[in-house]
Write a sequence for this structure.
């Protein structure tokens, strides 16, 4: 059986960065990917208007300065095609493709006590051994469908945004679009102009923020190039890993006049990055409910001004008590699209669907005849690892440990599963993915370097070459999860129904109540804590 020092699963940003960094360490590494090419979530989401919402200059790796200074990023946020092209570019530039194998889905991984290695099996039946196993499988990959009866009866086409890896021509068609999260809101704008009729089926009205994307000017690019080190330093000091300068702690919502507040919100509305509301307005916007309500007042005024039809407007306005407590949904032109006659909105809570029929979607009010139904209903919040069968050294399965929701130490490792690493695993930070995955790569490399050094020293002293097992203590993991729960409770996110919690969009309901899946204290604080713990190897064990 072929054996590697490390096997990486997944060829998105996380897997590419991990493959690159582990190869720099001199290990034999192979990456396996289920899809037919690189891209990860950006391979599977090629629907019209799929766009990132992170500043382009930092939506990339920072280890290759020469490339950073020359590689083009034509707009302030990047369309899917540009992002996937960048990933391909990195893979080619660093000659990573020969170390990648596509169309290979991980089926199981079992720790073999006889040689202290992982035995990895793929859907093709191929089996490999590895000392280190890195799951760079992303946080959004198990797509979720609503349970509506009759799905199989529909005579037209049905697509999910999370499995859209080819061009689909929907010009002139009647389309029903279920879901109004980041994917649904952006796709709606992408389709509104080209389809004959578009009906948005909305469960919860969202506050959708414009991303005022525009071409990058030569002066802007020049400034970034001159200050690249500064830009990337700011990434690690920013709450979302995107380079926003921290808002001074005393610049709070009620520390300014009403006029100033309005001016700040208006600037954020016109900002090139929709994330500005959360990270570039007031320091207490996500921690003080009264402050958050001021923002909500502003959003409601904007929606009311933009949407002309009072019936549509009424459906698009969230109930007044709804806080801005989810991951920001950014899409320019969203509310404006509803001013088009061919775009309509159905509120699921007011007129629930009854069934999918041969012709379309039947609600309690009427039957909508459709050619295409699109599910923009996202992913099972804790579903990423659900279909992978992982067995640890004591014979227990990871799924047994995670029946109540996934847990880890620092988002990197799971106690009792040695030499198994996650890139952006459970309870890691919600932040700019390329930069977060690069950071995780650095931390994993640090841990593996120590293990490899110990192995070398032992080999020299005792003429043995035993694998060193890197693990976390259960106490360290429990304390980290406890901290993540305490942190989210200090924010408005705690009240919201979202994929921040393991009970969202999933049939697997934890009995013990809400279980948080992210560290919501900001990427800056996260980096500080993880660097400090990994730097001192605190909470980790290294055993021969
Ligand atoms: P999502 O944020 O989970 O949104 C899912 C949508 O489907 C929500 O509107 C949800 O309604 C609705 N929904 C789910 N289950 C439903 C059901 N059973 N019946 C009716 N409606 C249902 O998924 P997503 O939009 O695909 O986004 C996934 C992740 O990717 C998020 O982190 C998102 O921010 C990210 N993303 C980012 C970008 C970007 O960077 N620009 C683009 C796309 C996606 P409720 O609101 O009522 O739950």
């Amino acid at each position: 059986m072929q054996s590697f020092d490390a096997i990486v699963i997944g060829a998105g940003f996380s897997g590419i960065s991990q493959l690159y960094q582990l190869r720099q360490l001199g290990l034999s590494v192979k990456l396996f990917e289920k899809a037919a090419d690189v891209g990860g979530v950006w391979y599977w989401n090629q629907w019209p208007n799929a766009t990132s919402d992170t500043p382009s200059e930092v939506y990339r790796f920072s280890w290759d300065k020469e490339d950073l200074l020359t590689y083009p990023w034509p707009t302030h946020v990047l369309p899917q095609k540009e992002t996937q092209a960048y990933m391909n570019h990195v893979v080619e530039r660093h000659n990573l493709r020969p170390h990648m194998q596509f169309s290979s889905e991980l089926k199981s991984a079992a720790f073999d006590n006889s040689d202290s290695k992982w035995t990895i099996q793929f859907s093709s039946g191929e089996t490999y051994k590895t000392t280190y196993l890195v799951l760079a499988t992303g946080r959004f990959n198990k797509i979720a469908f609503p349970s509506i009866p009759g799905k199989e009866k529909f005579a037209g086409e049905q697509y999910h945004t999370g499995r859209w890896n080819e061009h689909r021509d929907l010009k002139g068609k009647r389309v029903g679009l279920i879901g109004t999260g980041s994917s649904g809101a952006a796709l709606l704008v992408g389709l509104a102009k080209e389809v004959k009729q578009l009906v948005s089926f909305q469960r919860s009205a969202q506050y959708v923020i414009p991303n005022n994307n525009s071409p990058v000017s030569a002066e802007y690019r020049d400034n970034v190039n001159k200050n690249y080190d500064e830009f990337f330093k700011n990434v690690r000091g920013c709450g979302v890993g995107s380079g926003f300068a921290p808002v001074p702690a005393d610049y709070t919502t009620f520390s300014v006049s009403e006029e100033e507040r309005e001016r700040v919100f208006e600037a954020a509305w016109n900002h090139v990055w929709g994330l500005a509301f959360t990270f570039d307005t007031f320091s207490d916007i996500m921690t003080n409910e009264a402050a958050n309500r001021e923002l909500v007042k502003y959003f409601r005024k904007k929606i009311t001004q933009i949407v002309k039809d009072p019936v549509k407007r009424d459906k698009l306005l969230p109930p007044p008590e709804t806080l801005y407590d989810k991951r920001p949904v950014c899409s320019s032109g969203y509310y404006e699209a509803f001013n088009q006659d061919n775009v309509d909105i159905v509120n699921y809570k007011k007129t629930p669907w009854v069934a999918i029929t041969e012709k379309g979607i039947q609600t309690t009010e009427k039957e909508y005849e459709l050619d295409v139904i699109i599910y923009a209903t996202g992913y099972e919040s804790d579903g990423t690892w659900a279909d992978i069968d992982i067995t640890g050294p004591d014979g227990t399965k990871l799924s047994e440990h995670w029946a109540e929701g996934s847990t880890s130490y620092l988002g990197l490792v799971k106690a009792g599963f040695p030499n198994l690493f996650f890139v952006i695993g459970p309870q890691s930070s919600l932040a700019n993915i390329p930069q977060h995955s690069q950071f995780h790569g650095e931390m994993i490399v640090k841990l593996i370097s120590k293990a490899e050094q110990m192995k070398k020293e032992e080999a020299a002293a005792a003429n043995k070459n035993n694998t060193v097992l890197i693990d976390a203590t259960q106490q360290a993991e429990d304390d980290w999860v406890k901290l993540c729960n305490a942190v989210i409770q200090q924010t408005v996110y705690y009240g919201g129904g979202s994929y921040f919690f393991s009970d969202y969009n999933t049939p697997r309901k934890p009995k013990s109540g809400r279980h948080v899946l992210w560290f919501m204290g900001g990427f800056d604080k996260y980096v500080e804590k993880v660097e400090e713990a990994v730097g001192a190897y605190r909470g980790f064990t290294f055993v021969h």
